[in-house]
Amino acid sequence: MILINILHKKYFLFLVLCISSIGLFAQHQYKGTVLDADTKETLPFVNIGIVNKGVGTVSDFDGEFYLEIDKAYFSKDDILQFSSVGYKTVQFKILEVNFSNTLFQKVVMQPEAMQLNEAIVTAKYLKGKKDDVVGFSYPSKNKFGYWKGDGSLGAELVTRISVDKKKHYLKDFHFYVNENYSDSVLVRINIYKGGTIYPEDKLLSKNVTKMIGKSPGKITVDLKPYNLIVDEDFSIGLELLEVYGKRVGLVLAADYRPSTSYRRYVSQGQWKTFRGDAMTFYVNTTALNDGDIAQISDYSRNKLLKNSFQTPIINTNPIKTHRSITGFVFNNGKPVENATVQITESLKQTQTDAYGRYSIMARLGDVISYNYLGFEKVERKVTETVHNINVSMNVKVEELAGVTVTERARLKKTEAEMFSEYLTNDEFAKTAYGTLDKKTIGHSITILEGKSLNLTAPNILAAIDGKIAGVRVGNVKVENPCFGCSFTKVAVFIRGGSGSINNLRPAIFEVDGIIYEEVPYFLDLNVIERIAVIPGLAGVGKYGQVAAGGVIAISTHLSNFASKDGKNIDQALIQRNIYKHDAIDKQQANKNLPGYLQTLLASSSFEAAKKVYYENEKLYSSSASFFLDAYIYFTANWEQEKFHNDIIVNHQSLFENNINEMKALAYAYQREGEFIKANKLYTSLFVKRPNYAQSYRDMANSYVEVDEVQKAANLYSRYTKLLNDSFLVADTIGLHPIITTEFNHFLQHKTDYAISSEDLKEDAAMREGADTRLLFEWNDDEAEFDLQFVNPENRYFVSSTSLKNQNEYFGKQEYSSSKEFFLESDIKGEWIVNINYKGNKSGLPTYLKVTSFSGYGTDNEESTIRIYRLSLKNVNQNLFYLPTLGVDKLN
After folding, report:
1. Among the three residues 342, 359, 392, which one is the final residue of a domain in this structure?
2. Number of compact structural domains in the chain
3. Distance between CA atoms of 11 and 17, rounded to whole angstroms?
4. What is the extent of the structural domain holding 648?
5. Burial 46-80, CB ≥16 within 10 A → b, else e
6. pLDDT at residue 103 above 60?
7. 463: helix, coil or strand?
8. In degrees rounded to 5, what are phi and psi of residue 314?
């Protein structure tokens, strides 16, 4: 967390990625749960850390905490401290902490006896009095404060506020959010007494928290319920408690007027003083005179003697029986979209959005239930102090009563075993990615036998409607941006419960291994053998983002592993995705190249090739494609650096205003390792196309190649900013996943940014079983082609760049000219990659750059770049062969 002065207005260019690592790289793990000694209830938001040593955290909503400590950095007398408002501080010496215990250890805290407040302020005492504003209310354009990176929990940002000697009743606290790169951030408001060197004595006697969303602007926190009266300087600020999203990037406005600010960068950390800085923190107050105080004291004595431990409140409004409960629903740290949040014993319910967020009105004592297909139901009670409830849902594990499960029974069956048992085991389901065993798959799926469907129904939608729990048929509105209109179509939705479906993503269908994003009305109901319902959280892992709404996997009688007489049947007759080796090879494709290229490729020496070049130079003097082809040919085949460099230098003007050819030339420079030359071209392209998301990706990647780390960071940050502000649209099936992949790679390998172990695990899980990353880039964003990937078992799938074929629910692929694929290594052998080029609007050739990465993201990462000239249309042609071990054989 840093407060910093900057001169450039667009601070967000380096906000998220001011790369520095704070904290220690831990070797010892200490985890536990903090409990109330009297009630045995868990305590959220307890400050935990080594005093003044920069290592700390905060307990979560369930009172749990996780702390990494390297004991080598600390002496035996260093103190591990637990502190919380309303509880006695607990301290341990480092040598007393049990780091070897792998279980959650219990830390018990004793409540402190509450002291009776001397006064209660009610609305009648404030009537007619004017508000005074104390603090700093002007948001400067050149100053700001922020949390960034992992955002150490317990870090605080505090500003000292001066007041006169009058008694001031604190009413409302205000601050400004400039940007929030997290989905949401939970902070605690801390108010400290003045008169001390550092903020020490808290005025608040309970936790006051605020959830900060993405929207910028002024945030107001009501302080009236806490009955705070000050007559001297005080300090007020925010403490980071929870971050929803991978990392925190919260920017707060600062004031141009000088004051004193305090920071500590981690829970229980040492305070640091910054003179001359002030956050835009201000408080509305009401000045109270001696008569007010006397009335208050009389009132309080009469009312509070009934219960000396009663917490005083401000009775400015009648007690509300209803309140808004907000929060998030997670599974293993990932948001659960479309979970049903319902008031138990009531029809009132809502669904979580794409970030797992929800909001629902509830009363004190209500029980809120959280449901999602395939997950354990979670219930939480609304208490007086609860306004925010976050829950973590776990995959449902079904127990078999009265059955002893042996170690052998728990082992996963092999594909061969499931092959032979499929017809007799109704807990197996077939998908394009293999057979799923309901007992061992690791996530919950629902399996339905075909004979239980309504076989008299007119189509598959009518047959499954109401037959499968959590699956329903509904309408979805589809926008057609090309024609400025919209229409409604029928789709299937997988979730737990009913309600509005406007924010839901439809499920996709798989029929005998073939993926359909539209409903397969053609399907004969009588041939359905089995249906598997796979929730989106489980489906995305294999099928990709297109399966975010879940998968309805249907297998028919015709596609069984074995017929009833035990004989295998021909899968190719059913699957329709057996590769027929119908792609033409490189030699055949070259016959359709321009004559000059065919002659160059046939040249047996450099001198012969040079002669061919000079014979055609004048003939094609106005063609950038000719000189680009020549440059690519000579650099690939002959080591004559000056000659091939002169090809471009002598015809530079042909590329200066030709965006597509300039980009293709940048590809050629990258292939040759001429990254500085490529960077200059990408810089020119960025200037010409400043509003293209593709420009940001290309420029950032180029900066990484020339080791301009900070500039790359700026571009990634700028892209995120424009995305959040809707100036750019995330192409979720093309460009955006590439930027995400490369950004994570950038953080891990090109900076000293400390990536958490959770992020590393998540990143590894996303590519589990994938040895090879293939990155496809093309110079003309209007080019269309189909990529065909044939696996070692001779089965294929096709990916298209055609805009008309893109999934209309996940955004239009606009100004995007790249795609990535991770090849799974479950099946050992050789992959085949083919292409069917459909052309572009210009009629000029399209240049395709293919980068093959083996060991991507590891210390053994290697890459190979090849460039292909695409001009032959509507013919399936081979690009390259690729073993799953990642050593390519690019042609």
Report:
1. 392
2. 5
3. 11
4. 586-890
5. bbbbbeebbbbbbbbbebebbbbbeeebbeeebbb
6. yes
7. helix
8. -95, 120
